Backbone:
């Protein structure tokens, strides 16, 4: 039986990955930051307390492990502080280094690092692919990029792979999509104008399928793969589909962009005065209206990956999950 360690096993992607690995007859050891759910369950057969900020783990968590799926890390915060920057590098970069060193000492064969498309910066030419080398413009992205370099260039394991998912959707309470769904349901999300921006997303099940495929296919060694569902979406399109899935009537109007920009300016002022974020500011508006379009052609061509889900088809199930 193949034995793997999944860090961040209790998270959104981690739980789905553990379930899939167990179904495929892997022995799953779960790396958990806090000492909870340490007993065996339907998702994993063994649980290990694993603090990526610690310099001493006692027993090597990678002993007798064939494959490490490294998902644990500090997630991207909406507002980044100086403390956040330190924590990003302590957890995302140095924590990955510690895990790689433990993997090397234990003779781990495969190390699959779940990174982010935000590990590099955006460029005007889209869709963006794995050849983009623009420096990330956030501490979060920079910490992820530094961790990627360790994984791919450090020589710690024979089969290192970096997976960069786009924005992940699925049955979860966390993230921008659930917040948008709840706001549309309450009638407080503005009907944005259709500006034909293009944003890439991916279902959590497809991220998991891509990660396992990258672990099992020798061609993946040393590679970076972007994973998307292959469908670029405009924010207005997503808004309309959410209304449809909520059985709300179609909205035939939109808030003019100059009104949204004025509201964002007020939000910026509010943030500077109070130190707290307003529901809409320039950063939020930019995320809603800009493009972030990525190509996953490389993993399709090299590993035969074909996504099984699209956002429109998945929305009814996500809405049922959110209640």
Residues:
């Amino acid at each position: 039986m193949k034995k793997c360690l999944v860090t961040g096993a209790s998270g959104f992607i981690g739980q789905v990955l553990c379930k899939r690995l167990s179904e495929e007859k892997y022995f799953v050891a779960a790396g958990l930051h806090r000492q909870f759910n340490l007993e065996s369950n339907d998702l994993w057969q063994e649980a290990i307390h694993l603090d990526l900020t610690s310099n001493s783990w006692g027993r090597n968590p990678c002993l007798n492990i064939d494959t490490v799926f490294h998902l644990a890390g500090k997630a991207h915060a909406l507002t980044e502080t100086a403390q956040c920057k330190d924590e990003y590098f302590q957890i995302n970069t140095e924590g990955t280094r510690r895990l790689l060193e433990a993997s090397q000492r234990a003779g781990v064969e495969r190390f699959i690092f779940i990174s982010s498309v935000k590990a590099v910066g955006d460029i005007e030419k889209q869709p963006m692919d794995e050849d983009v080398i623009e420096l990330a413009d956030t501490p979060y992205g920079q910490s992820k990029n530094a961790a990627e370099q360790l994984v791919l260039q450090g020589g710690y394991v024979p089969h290192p792979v970096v997976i960069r998912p786009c924005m992940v959707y699925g049955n979860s309470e966390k993230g921008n999509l659930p917040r948008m769904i709840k706001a549309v349901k309450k009638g407080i999300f503005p009907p944005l104008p259709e500006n034909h921006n293009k944003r890439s997303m991916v279902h959590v099940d497809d991220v998991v399928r891509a990660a396992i495929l990258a672990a099992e296919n020798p061609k993946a060694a040393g590679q970076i793969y972007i994973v998307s569902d292959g469908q670029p979406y405009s924010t207005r399109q997503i808004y309309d589909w959410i209304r449809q899935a909520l059985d709300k009537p179609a909205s035939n109007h939109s808030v003019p962009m100059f009104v949204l920009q004025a509201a964002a300016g007020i939000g910026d002022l509010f943030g500077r005065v109070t130190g707290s974020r307003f529901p809409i500011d320039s950063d939020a508006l930019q995320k809603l209206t800009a493009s972030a379009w990525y190509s996953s052609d490389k993993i399709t061509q090299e590993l035969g990956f074909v996504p099984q889900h699209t956002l429109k088809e998945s929305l009814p199930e996500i809405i049922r999950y959110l209640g």
